[in-house]
C-alpha cells in the first residue's frame, strides 16, 4: 500500500500549501501574501511572532486590493477619519475585527517597525482598536490601511467613523472609577486607623489616648468624601424616588432609599459617637459598604463595555462612494450625496441611498434589509433602495434621495428609535425593593416609638442601629456580583448581554419571535444546491458550468459552483436575456440555463422549488433547487423552547420553506413576506397582551422589531460588527445553546433568591439585636462587612458551580 504523503502547511497561517514553490529557508507558504508577511517580519527581526503561537497569522491569498481603499486619498474623507491632524503628524484610531490573540497584539504594537513613517502604535485588545501616530510626509493613511489588510487585519471603516462619538457613557464610567478610587483609599486608611478599636487596646498614658482621639477625628475627615462623593448617587437616587412618590402618588419606593438611610444612619451615628462620646464608631462599616456597592456597580457596567449594542444605519454604510464628476469618478463622503449624483457601485457593495439604475446589470440582494433571500433583477430607470447589495458587475446609479431620507433610514425614524431603550427592572427587583423598604422603615420607627416610651435614652441608638444593619445588601451586592459572574460566563460562551437586567428579563419571557434567513438558517452564502433530473455526463456538466461562467447573475454563479470540478469549455456564441436566462452554442449544440418560461419547460417537468432549469438541445435535463441550511442544533433548540414559550417566525422570504418549518412550529405562527414595518407591528401586537416578548434576528430588516421587543438578541457571524441595535449579541455558532442560556438565567435568579434568604437570616439576627438597644458599634462593625462579603462569596461560588453543571464552563 503506497504511503500517504503528509500535507505541507503554510508557516504563516497553517493552511495547506498547494503551490510548494513558495519556500524561504525550508519554510513553506500557501500564497504570496503569507510569504510577504513573513519577509516583512524577517526584515525587521520580528519572527518571534511565530514563537508565541504556531501558524499565528491570518490567511492571505492576495495583496492586490484593486483600488478598494482609494477613497482614503480624498483629503476630506481622510480628515473625517483622523483623530488629530497637523502638517507633520496625524493620529487615527482603527477598528480591527480580525484581532484574536496575543500574537496579534505583539505584531500590531510593533507596526511602527514594519512601516517607515509610522511613529507609534498602540492596540486596545478588548475594543480591538489600533491607535496610530504617523508622519503624513512619509506614509499615507491609504498605505497604512492596505498594509494592515495585507497582514490580515483589515480595518472596518464605515460612515459611523465620521460621527462625533458620544462621550456621555465614557464620562460616567470615569466618574465611577474615581468614586471607587477615592472610596477605596479612604476605606483602607479608616480600617488601618481603627485597629485600636478592633483590639480594645488598654491605653496606659495620655499620649496614647491623644493618638487614639486623633485617629478618630482623622476617620471623620476620611469619611466625608466617602459619604458626600462615593455615596452621592445613592442619596440622590433616594431623593428622586421620594419626589416621584410625592408627584405621581405611587407606592413603589426605590431600593436606593434604604441604602441611603442605612449609609446616612451610619454617618450620623458615627459622628455622634466620635464627637460627643469620643468613642469608636461605624466609619469602617460605612466606608466598606459604599466601596462594595460601587465595586458591584462597576462589575455590572464594565463586563461588555467594548461591545456596541446600539447601532444605526451609519454602522453599516460605507464611508465613501465613487461619484461621477464630468468624465471621471471621484470619491465622496456618503453623507454628502445629493439628489442627481451619479454613483458607481462595485460587486458586493452596499447601496447607500435610494437611486435609479442608469447603466449596467443590477442584481440586488435585499436580504439584509427585507429578509428576502432571492436577488432581484433591476432594469434601467427602476428604483433601487438603500441597503441593497449589488451582486455582479459594476453599475451606475442616479441618486433620487439623500442618505438621511432613504427607505432604510425610515427604520430609524420610528418612535421607538428616538429614545434610549432601557430594559425595565424585573418583578424580582421591584418586589424586593418595595417590601424591604417599607418593612425596614416600619421596624425602625416602631423601635424608636417603643424605646421613647420605655427608655428615651435608648430610642435614638436603637433607631439608628436598625437602619444601619438593615441595609439591603442582598439586592445591592449579591445581585450585581451574581449577574456580573453570569455575564462573564455567558461571554466565555460568546453570548454577550448588555446589562444585568437582560438576564433577569430572560426569565420572564413568554413569547419568542425568530427571523428565518441568517437566524434559524445560515446566510445566503451557505445555501444548499441540489440537482434533480436526468443523470449528467462529465461533458454535459462541463457545458453547463462553462455557459454559467459567462453570466454575472447570482444564479449563474450558483450553477458554476455546483459543477465546479468540471472542465471549462469555450462557447462559439452566447446571448443573455436579462432576468430570464442565458443561451449558448458550442459545436452547433444549443445549451440553455434559465427559468421555466425561457426554456419552455413542459408542465409535467415543472417543480415549484426549482431555482433554475438546464437544457441541452430540445431536452430539459433537469433543474437545480436551493434550500437554506438550518443552523446546527436548530431542531433541538426549537424542541426545548416550544415547551415553555410561544414561538413565532417572521421572515421576509417567500413561503417555500413553510412545509419544512411547520414540522417544528405551529403553522399559524409562521409568517412570510414580512416587511420590516410588518415585523415591528407584529411585536407591538404581541405586547398588547402585557406578556414580555423576545425577538431573535440578525439584519437591518429586524432592527425595528429588535428595538420594539422587550428583549432583542442579535445573531451575528462576527460579534464585533454588523449587528443591529439589541440587548444581547449571540455568536451564530452558539445558536444551539440559546435554550441553555435562558435556562441558566433562571438558575442565576434562583441563586440571587438564595442570597436574599441568607441575607434575611443576617438581617433577622442583626435587627433583633438592634431593636433590643444593646448592639455595640464594634460588633456591628464586624458583623456588617462579614455579612456582605459572605453573601457575595456565596452567590459567586454557587454561580460557578451551577455553570459547571450546565456545561457552560469546562
From TrEMBL:
Matching InterPro entries: ATPase-cat-bd, ATPase_P-typ_cyto_dom_N, ATPase_P-typ_P_site, ATPase_P-typ_TM_dom_sf, ATPase_P-typ_transduc_dom_A_sf, ATPase_P-type_domA, HAD-like_sf, HAD_sf
This protein's name: ATPase
Membrane topology of the entry: Multi-pass membrane protein
UniProt GO BP: copper ion homeostasis
Organism ancestry: Bacteria, Pseudomonadati, Bacteroidota, Cytophagia, Cytophagales
Annotated organism of origin: Jiulongibacter sediminis
Keyword Repeat in record: no
PANTHER family tied to this protein: ATP7, ISOFORM B (PTHR43520), CATION-TRANSPORTING P-TYPE ATPASE-RELATED (PTHR43520:SF5)
Gene Ontology cellular component annotations, sorted alphabetically: plasma membrane
Amino acid at each position: 500500500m503506497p504511503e500517504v504523503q503528509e500535507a505541507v502547511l503554510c508557516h504563516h497561517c497553517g493552511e495547506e500549501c498547494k503551490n510548494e514553490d513558495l519556500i524561504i529557508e525550508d519554510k513553506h507558504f500557501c500564497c504570496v501574501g503569507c510569504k510577504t508577511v513573513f519577509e516583512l517580519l524577517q526584515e525587521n527581526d520580528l519572527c518571534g511572532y511565530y514563537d508565541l503561537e504556531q501558524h499565528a497569522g491570518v490567511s492571505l491569498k492576495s495583496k492586490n486590493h484593486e483600488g478598494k481603499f482609494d477613497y482614503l486619498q480624498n483629503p476630506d474623507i481622510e480628515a473625517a477619519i483622523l483623530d488629530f491632524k497637523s502638517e507633520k503628524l496625524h493620529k487615527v484610531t482603527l477598528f480591527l475585527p480580525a484581532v484574536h490573540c496575543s500574537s496579534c497584539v505583539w505584531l500590531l504594537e510593533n507596526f511602527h517597525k514594519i512601516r517607515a513613517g509610522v511613529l507609534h502604535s498602540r492596540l486596545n485588545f478588548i475594543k480591538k482598536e489600533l491607535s496610530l501616530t504617523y508622519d503624513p510626509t512619509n506614509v499615507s493613511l491609504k498605505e497604512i490601511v492596505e498594509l494592515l489588510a495585507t497582514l490580515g487585519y483589515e480595518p472596518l471603516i464605515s460612515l459611523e467613523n465620521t460621527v462625533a462619538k458620544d462621550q456621555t457613557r465614557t464620562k460616567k464610567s470615569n466618574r465611577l472609577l474615581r468614586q471607587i478610587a477615592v472610596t477605596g483609599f479612604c476605606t483602607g486608611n479608616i480600617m488601618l486607623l481603627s485597629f485600636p478599636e478592633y483590639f480594645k487596646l488598654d491605653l496606659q498614658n495620655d499620649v496614647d489616648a491623644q493618638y487614639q482621639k486623633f485617629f478618630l477625628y482623622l476617620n471623620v475627615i476620611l469619611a466625608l468624601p466617602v459619604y458626600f462623593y462615593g455615596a452621592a448617587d445613592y442619596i440622590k437616587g433616594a431623593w428622586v424616588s421620594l419626589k416621584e412618590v410625592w408627584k405621581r402618588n405611587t407606592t413603589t419606593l426605590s431600593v436606593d432609599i434604604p441604602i441611603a438611610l442605612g449609609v446616612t444612619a451610619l454617618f450620623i451615628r458615627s459622628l455622634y459617637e466620635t464627637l460627643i462620646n469620643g468613642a469608636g464608631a461605624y466609619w469602617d462599616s460605612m466606608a466598606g459598604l459604599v466601596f462594595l456597592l460601587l465595586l458591584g456597580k462597576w462589575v455590572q457596567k464594565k463586563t461588555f463595555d467594548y461591545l456596541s449594542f446600539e447601532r444605526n444605519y451609519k454602522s453599516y454604510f460605507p464611508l465613501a462612494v465613487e461619484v461621477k464628476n464630468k468624465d471621471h469618478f471621484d470619491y465622496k463622503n456618503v453623507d454628502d450625496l445629493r439628489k442627481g449624483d451619479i454613483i458607481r457601485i462595485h460587486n458586493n457593495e452596499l447601496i447607500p441611498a435610494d437611486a435609479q439604475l442608469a447603466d449596467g446589470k443590477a442584481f440586488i440582494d435585499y436580504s439584509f434589509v427585507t429578509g428576502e433571500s432571492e436577488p432581484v433583477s433591476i432594469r434601467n430607470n427602476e428604483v433601487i433602495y438603500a441597503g441593497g447589495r449589488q451582486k455582479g458587475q459594476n453599475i451606475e446609479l442616479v441618486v433620487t434621495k439623500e442618505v438621511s431620507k432613504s427607505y432604510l433610514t425610515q427604520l430609524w425614524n420610528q418612535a421607538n428609535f428616538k429614545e434610549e431603550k432601557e430594559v425595565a427592572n424585573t418583578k424580582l427587583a421591584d418586589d424586593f425593593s418595595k417590601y424591604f423598604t417599607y418593612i425596614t422603615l416600619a421596624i425602625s420607627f416602631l423601635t424608636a416609638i417603643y424605646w421613647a416610651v420605655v427608655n428615651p435614652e435608648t430610642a435614638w441608638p436603637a433607631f439608628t442601629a436598625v437602619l444601619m444593619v438593615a441595609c439591603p445588601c442582598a439586592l445591592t451586592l449579591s445581585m450585581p456580583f451574581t449577574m456580573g459572574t453570569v455575564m462573564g460566563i455567558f461571554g466565555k460562551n460568546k453570548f454577550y448581554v448588555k446589562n444585568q437586567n437582560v438576564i433577569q428579563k430572560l426569565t420572564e419571557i413568554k413569547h419568542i419571535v425568530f427571523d428565518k434567513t441568517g437566524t434559524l438558517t445560515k446566510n445566503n452564502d451557505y445555501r444548499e444546491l441540489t440537482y434533480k433530473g436526468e443523470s449528467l455526463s462529465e461533458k454535459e456538466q462541463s457545458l453547463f458550468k462553462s455557459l454559467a461562467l459567462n453570466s454575472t447573475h447570482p444564479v449563474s454563479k450558483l450553477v458554476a459552483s455546483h459543477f465546479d470540478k468540471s472542465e471549462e469549455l469555450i462557447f462559439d456564441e452566447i446571448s443573455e436575456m436579462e432576468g430570464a436566462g442565458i443561451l449558448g452554442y458550442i459545436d452547433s449544440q444549443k445549451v440553455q440555463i434559465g427559468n421555466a418560461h425561457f426554456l419552455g419547460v413542459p408542465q409535467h417537468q415543472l417543480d415549484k422549488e426549482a431555482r433554475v432549469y438546464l437544457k441541452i438541445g430540445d431536452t430539459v435535463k433537469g433543474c437545480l433547487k436551493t434550500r437554506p441550511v438550518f443552523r446546527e442544533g436548530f431542531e433541538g433548540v426549537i424542541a426545548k423552547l416550544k415547551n415553555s414559550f410561544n414561538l413565532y417566525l417572521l421572515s421576509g422570504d417567500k413561503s417555500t420553506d413553510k412545509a419544512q418549518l411547520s414540522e417544528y412550529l405551529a403553522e399559524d405562527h409562521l409568517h412570510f413576506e414580512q416587511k420590516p414595518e410588518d415585523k415591528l407591528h407584529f411585536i407591538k401586537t404581541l405586547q398588547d397582551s402585557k406578556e414580555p416578548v423576545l425577538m431573535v434576528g440578525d439584519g437591518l430588516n429586524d432592527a425595528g422589531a429588535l428595538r420594539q421587543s422587550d428583549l432583542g438578541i442579535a445573531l451575528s457571524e462576527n460579534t464585533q460588527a454588523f449587528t443591529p441595535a439589541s440587548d444581547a449579541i449571540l455568536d451564530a455558532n452558539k445558536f444551539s445553546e440559546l435554550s441553555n442560556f435562558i435556562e441558566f438565567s433562571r438558575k442565576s435568579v434562583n441563586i440571587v433568591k438564595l442570597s436574599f434568604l441568607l441575607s434575611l437570616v443576617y438581617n433577622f439576627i442583626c435587627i433583633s439585636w438592634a431593636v433590643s438597644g444593646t448592639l455595640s458599634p464594634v460588633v456591628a462593625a464586624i458583623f456588617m462587612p462579614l455579612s456582605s462579603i459572605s453573601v457575595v462569596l456565596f452567590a459567586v461560588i454557587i454561580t460557578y458551580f451551577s455553570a459547571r453543571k450546565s456545561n457552560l464552563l469546562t
